[in-house]
Amino acid sequence: MTVADPVLSLRGATRRFGGLVAVRDFDFDVGEHEVLGLIGPNGSGKSTTLNLISGALKPTSGSIMLRGRTISGLPAQEIARRGIARTFQLVRLLPSLNVLQNVMAGAVFGHRRRWGHEAEAQAMRMLEKVGLARRAHAPVGELTYIDTKRVELARTLAGEPKVLLLDEWLAGLNPTELEEGISLIRALRDEGRTIILVEHVMDAIRSLCDRCVVMSSGAKIAEGSTDEVLSDREVIRAYLGDDDA
Amino acid sequence: MTGTEARNLALAAVAFAVVACLPLAGSAYWLAIGVTIAMYTVLATSWALFSGPTHYISLATAAFFGVGSYTTAIGIEHLPYWTLPPIAGVLGAVLAALVGLATLRLSGVYFVIFTLGLAELVRQVIIWFQNVSGTKGLYVLTSITEAHIFWQLTGLAALVYLVGWAIWRSRLGFALRIIGDDEEVARHSGINTAGAKVLLFMVPGAVAAITGAILAPRYVYIEPATAFTPMLSFQVVIMALLGGTSRLWGPLVGVIPFTFLWEAISASFPNQTTLLLGICFLLIVYLLPKGFVGLLQAARKRVETREAWA
Amino acid sequence: MDILITGLLLGGTYALIAMGLNLQYGIARIMNLANGEMLVAGGFAAFWFWTAGQISPLLTIFLVAPVAFVANWLIYRIMLRPLVKRAKSRGQLEVDSILATFGLAFVSVGLMLAVFGGDYFSYSHLARPVHILGDTYALNRLTAFLAAVVICGALYLWLNLSRPGVSIRAIAVSPESARLVGIDVPKLAAIAFALGGAVTATGGALISMFFTLDASTGVLFTLKALVIVIMGGVGDVRGTIVAALLLGIMETFVASAIDPGLTLAAAYLLFVLILLFRPQGLFGRRGT
Asked: pTM (2 decimals)?
């Protein structure tokens, strides 16, 4: 299945670690304003795929294109500058900077670059968006877990990226926080942002994703609308094992 | 510029004006100490500009310093003196850029190792060149006095502080603080981390070379063994870390006591200076990981919490 | 041909020294910049036993090795283990261990200067010529090389065949996974560090047979060992040996063809080439 005029496309993306093939011959497209779920069991290659897109790893073969221009092989900072921003599976904040400065990192060096008061204002707007404006001058060490996730999200938004990569952004939240988290991402979706969501929380995938790509053992096993994919026999087998299918 | 910044700037200007009057006091001993302190202040402060935020330990100071000394020693025959420190600065910056391009993409260990041997490497090459060309050491005979050297170094120190302050306020400074916290986040935020580091490393490279060029007339006779003393690199590291690298003025706090300690030890136990260096290193790692600056900040925090409770 | 064999003989001894450093860096994850001082201390011991009692360095190493093992084990437990524990990140441990081992290096040099003075020391043992393929070589160089080969070989077999050896190699590959399969990482890291120190000190005793040492030459050997380890690949025994032989040949070539004063420049040339083109080491794969 192809998307007309995709923002991001992978073609034959492959990554080997020695003898192990973590991602094998992977193709998919993400359209404008689309929220794409990238799902699959643990170790199926989702995070490696995100690392390939964001430039943390280089593909062994195949290509990745942003608006038709190849970005695979570029260093991570260049990919960030061209408009792909990501969060990390384990939240990574900058401990010596306060909340506002953490977000400014994205505003100053991201896709759309600002400096001085302009950057500060942009960072403040992003903090308002994620609901953390009143803690702007707090040290990041004082934040609760979900608030650290909010800061990281605000940082990736601050550079106005074309594509947002969220790596298990909802993992580890308690039920109340999860609800807040989901509505936050839904708000981003309603703004028309293009997002790739690596996620395990099924409720979140159902309510947020337009489409899903399912990986197992490094390869794509299914792709389609979320409902369709989640009822696919192959997908259920990959998640639960052969006996239950 | 905010009001506090303007006030700090004015205070610093006054302090520099007072310091610059030292040669007028007429004591040769104190002037000599003053030159030494000014030299180490310049070297340690510029060292900390790079190594503070990046945590890369540079041991290349002696190499840059030696390159600067040789610039003066060779150039004095052909060019007016005042052109030489700037030329040395350019050479130092170029050498730093080359070293940085080769090593700063990689982990800190490679950088330390590379800079550790750099002074010795340049020294070997110069000795070899002298052997081939049949020259020995070089004389630097000028009418430059100790007071001139002191003034030049004080001016250079002022420049280093200004540059440090300007970098801190710039995008480069912000990028470096991010790199110092988490290099991977920095890269994924769109920062060219290797580029920023190389650019910044050129600052201590240029400054140390200029310092070497300014001090060359003091030594009169320049030869590889004296121009490239590896000890210099280590002393600078210790002084900067002893003072603390998290503030611009931190290294100065380390330079002053260490200079006096070093003078005292080398006067009474000249063979034990190595031992002293070693003990200082251990002291820093185990007792003063953030230097005197860290100690002061911790003390201030304690007072603040006590006041908050009272 | 002459250069090749002299280079190989020198490289064999370098391999031993670098192997010691590699055990310490690859397994205990400590970049030990006091490694060269351990070498000089081994050399001092050999020198002292030779001048005091005409005891051959080949016998002295049986004393040097266990003493250095215990000394390095203590250094690791007392000085370095606390740094490993307090380090929040790999980078911080790197900085701390670099500064701490520098401190250790300077203290050792200071103490050796105080005890032995700043003189060069050398002695003449087995300084007879031997003939190989029509050229003459000093017997002490050949002996040191053969001893280094035997020790390297024994080490290689131990690392590949014995249970603790395999565990140690597992740590080199991945300390986290090693812990998960029940390997006592802190204990083996201490042993690897101690073993590395013992190997280096033994190398020092051997090299003192044909090399003039003084209290402050340690840092030069540290540098060479570091270059070899990086060239060969961290934790890679085979790479270390190849890199050491390469460096030995390169140095010998530069010394005889251009100028003996440029040996460090030769090592640096190799170093720069490696950094620019194969920072993962000669046989390393491009990692993650």
From this structure: 0.87
pLDDT averages per 10-residue partition of chain C, 288 residues = 80 87 84 89 87 81 88 89 80 84 89 77 67 70 82 85 83 77 82 91 87 81 88 82 89 84 81 80 58
Contacts with A111 from chain B: Cβ below 8 Å: 190
- Is ipTM > 0.95 here? no
Per CB-CB distance under 8 Å, the chain C contacts of B106 are 275, 279
Dihedral, A46, A50, A53, A59 alpha carbons, nearest 10: -50
Domain count of chain B?
1
Is the CB of C89 inside 8 Å of chain A's CB atoms? Answer: no
Contact check, Cβ <8 Å, B190/A88: no
What CATH class does A1-74+196-245 carry?
alpha beta
B-chain residue closest to A82, CA distance = B190
Which of A82, A88, A96 is best to mutate for the B interface (most B CBs within 10 A)? A96
- What is the domain partition of chain C in residue ranges? 13-225
What are the sequence ranges of the domains in chain A?
1-74+196-245
Residues of C in contact with A18 (CB under 8 A): 285
In chain B, which residues have their Cβ closer than 8 Å to the Cβ of C110? Answer: 272, 274-278
Q: Inter-chain contact C107–B285, Cβ cutoff 8 Å?
A: no
**In terms of C-beta distances under 8 Å and separation of at least 24 residues, what long-range contacts does B126-132 make, across chains too?**
B126/B66, B126/B70, B126/B224, B126/B228, B127/B224, B127/C261, B128/C258, B128/C259, B128/C261, B128/C262, B128/C265, B130/B224, B131/C259, B131/C261, B132/C259
